[in-house]
Amino acid sequence: AVAAAMRLGAFLSALRPALPLLLGLSLGCSLSLLRASWSHSAAEERCLAAGPPAPPARGAPPEAAEGRPGPGHEDFRPRIVPYYRDPNKPYKKVLRTRYIQTELGFHERLFVAVLTSKATLNTLAVAVNKTVAHHFPRLLYFTGLRSAKVPHGMVLVAHGDERPIWLMYETMNYIHQHFGSDYDWFYIMQDDTYAQAEQVKALVAHLSINQDVYLGRAEEFIGGDEQARYCHGGFGYLLSRSLLLKLHPHLDSCRNEILSVRPDEWLGRCIIDFLGITCVSQLQGQHYHTYELAKNTEPEKEEEEEFQAALAVHPVSDMTLMYRLHKQFSRIQLDRVYQEIQDLQMQIRNLTALTPAGEAGVTWPVGINAPFLPKSRFEVISWDYFTEQHLFSCPDGSPKCELSGASKADVSEIIESAVEQLNRRYQPLLRFSKRQLLNGYRRFDPTRGMEYTLDLLLEAATQKGHSHILAKRVSLVRPLSKVEIIPMPYVTEATRVQLVLPLTVQDLDFVANFLDMFAMNTLDTHDNALLTLLFIYHPYDAQRVGQVDVFGGVKAMVGELEKRYAEVKIPWISVKTEVPSQVKLMDIVSKKHPVDTLFFLASVWTEINMEFLNRCRMNTISNWQVFFPVHFQEFNPALVYRGEQTASSNTDFLRDGHFDRHSFAEACFYNSDYMTARTKLAADILDRDEVLESMEVFDVFLHYSGLHLFRAVEPGLVQKYTLRSCNPRLSEELYHRCVLSNLEGLASRSHLAMALFEQEQANST
């Protein structure tokens, strides 16, 4: 018995850690069985109940009465569409949509329509465009009759009739036809309305799209039903996409049956009569606040809470009042943001005190990421030294350059901000004024923004009038703001690329390698790329072309390629000139190709590959952007390896060289963009063709196009080392750039130092 008791005690001691698990399992099983019995009994009661089911609630769809979502919810339930292909039908390639959001059925958030007139188009409509238009994703202006000249930057739709009801009818039809399937919300406003764009966007962001919405300032009809309301057009109103789709079939009936003087009353009556929806000023916990301006109102003195909370203000009588309203509301919004920042910083301080790090864990400034901590000396971010006149870290590599442009404006602004912050902290006891910037340092930290350290010589004045000169060091941070996605036009990799290769007599030794790489990487792979050769004859060689053609060997190689690839034709153009200006040569090529041609201006040392051609297609956008890649130039192997074997590893192919930022020989651009810029250049130089000898295609686009110039390093363009011949007949700047490219392409500083060291050792022995 004693032994049995001991065994039982040992068993219980071993079982004790598992007792909570066993109790939990048993309790869970018991509850699940009990719930199953309840569900079964309830189901039996429903099955045995006599008589028809109870009717659904008034206004509820049958599906909702049965516990299933109604038809309005179908678009928001995920569905798996099975793929099925009829084996009896021929297979067709599936055409994908251009954007993924189109395929997934996403809509843009907000569309804004501004109702204007011919009389106010150049006044109030321009004021609306300058104050709030850039805050809305899409904004159009609708008018009856248009003026002779449309203000710059405004998209205008004219319906041809100034009658208010007709204008509203045509506007609703136009919005439904062109934007009804693209946007979730439609905001209609007049040009004498000031709307807080950010507040309107915040409003639609908090509303559910699964509802018919007619939201604005609700007004009673004159002599009409007391329950019905329409939205006052002067304060703007919001329509949902579902309401617009339901309203569109009834617009013709509304135009013929409803008589009204005001367009907003007409639209409200149409929505009420045919859809049974009245205007509301509050929906889903969101309020549509408005404010009606009195005559001779001064916005700067308006301190009422109703004014500060308003989404829309009406009526705005002139442009000046619109700008004053915008300034006042911007100041109110800025004060709110600053107060919110202070509240958040206080919360961060309070919470950080409770963390293990304590108050030492608070970073400066509060709420901004801590500075980047390098893990090795190669990750250290260097500081740039500057004064009020000079910068000692220049883009061109020189040790000292004049402070100008954006850098000068940045330094002036940061000094003013530093003095302002000091006065804000120490006033009224002390007031500081800047005497001189002693030292300035700045660096860009990718984790937080631009950091500054300033040594300022200040004059401090007391309340009694005493002054003292002192030096003070201050630190400032310009934090990174909200990241924005810049919209770019759509491009594909299917565009045909037209390669243009200018050739001189000095380039003959490298043509064979270029043609071999072109054949291997484009012709063998059937890439959508063509080649045009540009033979540049010296006048002396052009006179002897009948006896000795200096480009005869190249033409023979082209003939061999055309025999090998029967479907390929490689045309060439012959030009006679002493100064091969890039712009003049491009003028000749441009006239021989269609305007939609995508050019890739190449050099004879370029090794063409499919990877770069695709990037050329993607980075070049017609009427938007041109692409000037920076190729990788290998160093002189005689200086780098000094008799040793060249590294052939694929991982080291970008090791012994540099990206040649002095070369602008390669370029990707559309012919239409070049012709537009070239026309502006011709009007500027007025037949002074000698100016073209000092310019490259890059200069034409930089000064005369207005397009985005995308200049980036391109690892897909690797060029072998060669000593380029620099034409002294070109301009001084182009010749100097060519010489610098040759010098920097010799070797790195360490390689040059080793070569000099070995040469000195050899001379000493």
UniProtKB/TrEMBL annotation:
Any one GO molecular-function label of the UniProt entry: glucuronosyl-N-acetylgalactosaminyl-proteoglycan 4-beta-N-acetylgalactosaminyltransferase activity
Keyword Electron transport listed: no
Class of this enzyme: transferase
Region ranges (Disordered): 49-79
Localization per record: Golgi apparatus, Golgi stack membrane
InterPro entries documented for this protein: Chond_GalNAc, CS_glycosyltransferase
Membrane topology type: Single-pass type II membrane protein
GO CC terms in record: Golgi cisterna membrane
Keyword Cytoplasm: no
Superkingdom to which the source organism belongs: Eukaryota
Enzyme Commission number, as recorded: 2.4.1.-
A family per Pfam: CHGN
Keyword line: Glycoprotein, Golgi apparatus, Membrane, Signal-anchor, Transferase, Transmembrane, Transmembrane helix
Family to which this protein belongs: Belongs to the chondroitin N-acetylgalactosaminyltransferase family.
Name assigned to this protein: Hexosyltransferase
Gene name of this polypeptide: Chpf2
